[in-house]
Specification:
This protein is an all-alpha fold and 277 residues long. It is 76% helix and 0% strand. It has one domain (18-272). The protein has nine helices and no strands. The chain is globular, with a radius of gyration of 18 Å.
């Protein structure tokens, strides 16, 4: 079992012509540096959840859990990842960002190829490994951008994206355990990811700059976390069953949607100066 390292997720694929167009528009359409940094920060942090989510949806569909929804979300998620990386194309032209951006692109292309193949246990395992690699490389890219936007709102934006990644990773590991992997390494990874999510959620809830909309979003995440956490806890003690896979599928997707909205709130705060309310 490949150990999870640090934050960082997904990346994009159709990268020959689209990034060039995005790069050409980046310099002229964003005269305000704060706007550009905030947007790139949001895109880079969002990359970290996409790989884990695609691997989760691939595993979920392969296990015939809400299959039609998973397949539709998988197709949409690939487009979202490609759009995010295209909007970050300017980073590929920067001396500090070119190498890590290139690694993101390469790993994303392989992941995209894997999750478009018919499901097998070996391909699902490979998708998980690639999701972990994307977490590392996209995390480095996000940190490079964040260095130019060090503020409470920037850290909150990063925290929301990391939280989203943890939720998708936890759901992926859950489905992997349901497919028959009961190794101690996987159970340890599940326990660690549960702990990381719980800690990260508490930190965001305590962020003093949260406007009312952010507090409302965090309350929704907290409610969905109850369902996801309970299902995963039970899976750690036995082989699972019942309706738990459906709960994991639906709650992880609802968490994803809510945390994406929360990230947008934090991006707007960062763009406005990062002080919140």
């Amino acid at each position: 079992m490949q150990r999870w390292l640090v934050a960082g997720v997904l990346v994009c694929g159709v990268i020959v012509s689209v990034p060039r167009a995005a790069a050409q528009s980046a310099g002229v359409a964003r005269p305000d540096a704060a706007i550009q940094v905030a947007r790139e920060m949001q895109e880079a942090t969002s990359l970290r959840l996409h790989g884990q989510r695609l691997a989760k949806l691939y595993q979920q569909a392969g296990m015939d859990v809400h299959t039609a929804q998973a397949q539709a979300a998988l197709a949409k998620g690939m487009i979202q990842g490609e759009q995010a990386l295209a909007r970050l194309a300017r980073q590929g032209q920067q001396p500090a960002g070119a190498r890590v951006y290139g690694r993101c692109v390469a790993v994303w292309q392989e992941l995209r190829a894997v999750v478009t193949q018919p499901y097998t246990s070996a391909s699902a395992e490979r998708a998980g490994q690639l999701a972990e690699a994307l977490a590392i490389h996209a995390g480095k890219l996000a940190m490079q951008i964040e260095a130019g936007a060090d503020s409470p709102a920037g850290r909150a934006l990063d925290g929301a994206a990391r939280l989203n990644m943890f939720a998708q990773r936890l759901a992926r590991l859950y489905f992997q355990s349901m497919s028959g992997d009961r190794s101690q390494g996987l159970l340890t990874d599940m326990a660690q990811t549960r702990s990381e999510f719980a800690t990260g959620l508490l930190e965001l809830e305590r962020y003093p700059g949260n406007p009312p909309a952010a507090r409302e979003a965090l309350a929704l995440v907290r409610n969905q976390w109850v369902f996801l956490d309970e299902a995963v806890r039970q899976a750690q003690g036995r082989s699972g069953g019942g309706r738990e896979p459906q709960y994991v599928a639906t709650s992880s997707e609802r968490i994803q949607e809510t945390l994406a909205s929360l990230a947008e709130i934090y991006r707007e705060l960062l763009q406005a100066g990062g002080r919140g309310v």
